[in-house]
Amino acid sequence: MMKKCYSGAILAVAVLTIMSGCQESSFENNHTIDKGKVVEETMTPSVHVDPAIDLSSKQTTSIIIEFKTKPAKVAVIEAEAKGIPLTIEEAKEQVEESHQTFQKELHELLDKNQVPYTVRHKYTTALNGVSMELPANEIKRLAEFSSVISKISLNRKIKLDPPILPSEHL
Questions:
Q1: CB-CB neighbours of 127 under 10 Å
Q2: What angle do CA 79, 130, 51 make, to 5 degrees?
């Protein structure tokens, strides 16, 4: 029984990986491979911005920004699946470079224009990105200006109900 669960989980992960690969195939065409490293072109595909964000508001809004560069462990697994050599050290370096680039972009776009913002957390494990606060009406400009952002979501708490155990049905 346990063997079936593991093989089912592995199959599910494989299907999800293949599906995400299919969705990203047009994005991959904007990259060139140089000695196993992925080099992004200067042309930026559009950034997905959460429709729940009121982009016309001047109110400070808490958001989570996800970068295009995957977390190191995910990047290594995806590269391996595509037959591209990538070490965990190289992947971690790419993650750090994405954060450095983002800091430079914040300086160029927000600091120089005296836009108030606060970076609350830096994420590198489950996702690669940051949580931050800034006026909602600056989010679109940041999305259009940035070369590293893939997705911007409203930072909100969600509640998941715990699964019902078979013994609870009795």
A1: 15
A2: 95
